[in-house]
Amino acid sequence: MDTTGSLNSKVISIDGNFDDAQSAVKKIFNDEKIKEELKEENIYLSSANSINIGRLLPQIIYYFYSYADLVKNKKISGGEKISYCVPTGNFGDILAGYYAKEMGLPIDNLVIASNDNNVLTDFFTSGRYDANRDLVKTISPSMDILVSSNLERLIFHKSSDEVVKEKMADLKDKGLFEFKSDFHEFLCGFAKEDETRETIKKVFEEENYLMDPHTGVAKNIVDKLGLHKTVILSTASPYKFSSTVLGALGKSFR
User: Fold this and answer.
1) What is the pLDDT of residues 106-164, one digit of tens each?
2) Among the residues of the chain, which ranges form H helices?
3) Mean pLDDT of 220-243
4) Statement to judge: residues 114 and 94 lie in one domain
5) What percent of the chain has pLDDT over 90?
6) How far apart are CA 116 and CA 85, in angstroms?
7) Residues 153 and 189 both lie in one domain
């Protein structure tokens, strides 16, 4: 990221993980002194990740687009319910699917696919969100997250702003909270690294389709749950993770 050559961008590294970075960004956004100082310079802060609802809005579109494409190609009939499986860490992309469903798109299940950092799978299974665990560095790094920022948005839709405030305070102070609701829209599961590698290899050998590790997690969950007529959101390129993908195929990386 530090080799783009852009004159109007700067890459800053931190000693920490995604959760540390996202927490720091939120603190900056909520710092009134910083905001006032920047305002004097006519500078306003924003975020390119799903802290910003603007990230989710275009993501809603490809749920509708993919559905329309399936109807156009006569893979499904108009109005027929299908499911979507999303490799999930920060809960943004799948929340966009929830919004699409709320807008009327005939979605049956929204499937949360987690890696070894399966805090979301645990939450939707038990109603207890517990971030008091070690972060596992996996081959699907975009999902290596313990504090899923967009979950608070879903909790808001399922309760109220006061409940969200209470639960987020518990998460900050104790590292956990409990919240039970009707999450009938969601299914969930998690895949370990060996399972992900096996899925990447199997799909390539049987379908001649090369998938990245995040997509491999999602495909593994779809197979485990025995789902049919399910769109898997392939959220990254396999060429970005060439060493991992080649290793899964039994090839060496040179």
Assistant:
1) 999 999 999 999 999 999 999 999 999 999 999 999 999 999 999 999 999 999 999 99
2) 18-29, 32-40, 53-72, 93-102, 119-126, 151-158, 161-174, 193-207, 213-225, 242-248
3) 96
4) yes
5) 81
6) 17
7) yes
What is the DSSP secondary structure assignment for residue 240, as one 8-state letter?
Answer: G
Is residue 1's pLDDT more than 80? no
pLDDT at 21: 86
Residues 21 and 64 in one domain: no
Q: Give the relative orientation of helices 193-207 and 213-225 as an angle to the nearest 10 degrees.
A: 90
Q: Which of 116, 94, 117, 97 is nearest to 105 (CA)?
A: 97
33 and 91 fall within a common domain: no
Q: State the DSSP code for 88.
A: -
Q: Which pairs count as long-range contacts for 20-28, CB under 8 Å and 24+ apart, including other chains?
A: 22/49, 22/51, 22/90, 22/147, 22/149, 23/147, 25/51, 26/51, 26/149
For residue 2, tell me if it sits in a domain.
Answer: no
Cβ–Cβ under 8 Å, residues 89 and 149: no
pTM: 0.90
Sign of the Cα pseudo-torsion (154, 68, 143, 193, in order): positive
Q: What is the largest CA-CA distance in the chain?
A: 59
Domain with 37 in it: 15-47
The mean predicted confidence, pLDDT, of the chain is: 94
